[in-house]
Amino acid sequence: MTLYTEAIMAPDVAAIQRSLQESGLAAWLLYDFHGANPISLRIAGVASSGHLATRRWYYLIPAEGQPKGLVHRIERQNLDHLPGEKLVYAGRAELDRGLTELLAGVSQVAMEYSPECAIPYVSRVDAGTVEAVRARGVEVVSSGDLVQQFEAAWTPAQLASHRAASEALYRIKDRAFAAAGQAVRDGRRLDEFSLQQQMWRWFDEEGLDSDSPPVVAVGPNASSPHYLPTQASSAAISAEALLLLDLWGKRREPGSVFADITWVGYTGTQVPERMRRVFTAVAGSRDAAVSLVQDRARAGQDVRGWEADRAARQVLVDAGFGEFVAHRTGHSLGENVHGNGAHLDDYETHDDRRLLPGTGFTVEPGLYVGDFGVRSEINVYRDLRDAIVTGPRQEAIVTLV
């Protein structure tokens, strides 16, 4: 579902109202102060208006009827592109009266709010603003699934950009494994940072952007999920060691969405039994999450982020590795690598949002046992009737020499 029209970057109010009606919600109240709520900025098109928003603004989209805004007098142009009446305030007394008028007759609003901050990616509205809305007799509920529909759902062009980025990442991964294996065979020193920088240059060759160079981690460093080598601190890629590569990127065209993969290799000819057992558990965990999502999608049933995480983690617990889990099973993918859709999480948070059609996400369980770590990461696109893995799944630790 496309939220913005290409020409004016205004929200598709009719589409939002249909979603409100289908969800049984009375209204969506968009709000921001000083960029604290980037979701509302993008949904309302204020982020692309070319004007700095330094004062509080509100934009109410009811399930039926005309939208209405409340904006500061010196920044009233920030809402000029939006349909509906605009109330204007300057002093705090006018703001208080304006908010009361804006919410008159409204019993419930969805906002970027998550009860007890259970989902911090959604929880963007400050407690005081929620209190001000509630003080006017208005119930505040989470806009989590609305955000997914209008912020996290991919267009066909975005799906194509994801697939292109994914294919490029797999090529870079293959080149990196080949370079590591060749260096070990030649007895030539190659450290994590040097390989990372090679990969970073290959990103440029492939036309990819990212917010960070890739993770290149050997042995114990692979047991730190967010480890990144630096020029000052970088381990050598030696023989008979586990090598973990985690790389994410997107095409440079506007609107492109990320792909994000993790693979593990072994710089020897025969993978040790303990590493094989850990990898088998991780791969089984990954596949359990995918199977659950696919089965529900094919049956036309909802599946929520916490359910997929729980299904995956249960495999790790049953295999006797529960104590080595350190993070959730997966995250939403979008124009940012951590998107605003549902995450596969019942570990760090309880993500009760549905994995909606049109959204993409990672499945990346990991085990971190101290002397090495194993993670297997793939990407899944939730279609109307299926869930599609958009790249190859790793079935065994790759031997590199």
Tell me what you see in this structure.
Helices cover 33% and strands 19% of the residues. The protein is an alpha+beta fold. The protein has 2 domains: 13-151, Creatinase/prolidase N-terminal domain (Creatine Amidinohydrolase, Chain A, domain 1, 3-Layer(aba) Sandwich), CATH 3.40.350; 154-399, Creatine Amidinohydrolase (Alpha-Beta Complex). Helix 8 packs antiparallel against helix 9. It is elongated.
Can you describe this structure in just a few lines?
By secondary structure, the protein is of the alpha+beta class.
How do the strands and helices of this protein lay out in sequence?
Layout: H1 13-23, E1 27-32, H2 38-43, E2 57-62, E3 68-72, E4 85-89, H3 92-102, E5 108-111, H4 127-134, E6 139-142, H5 144-152, H6 156-186, H7 192-206, E7 208-209, E8 215-218, E9 242-251, E10 259-266, H8 273-298, H9 305-318, E11 332-333, E12 360-363, E13 366-368, E14 373-375, E15 378-382, E16 387-389, E17 398-399
Helix pairs in contact: 6-7, 8-9
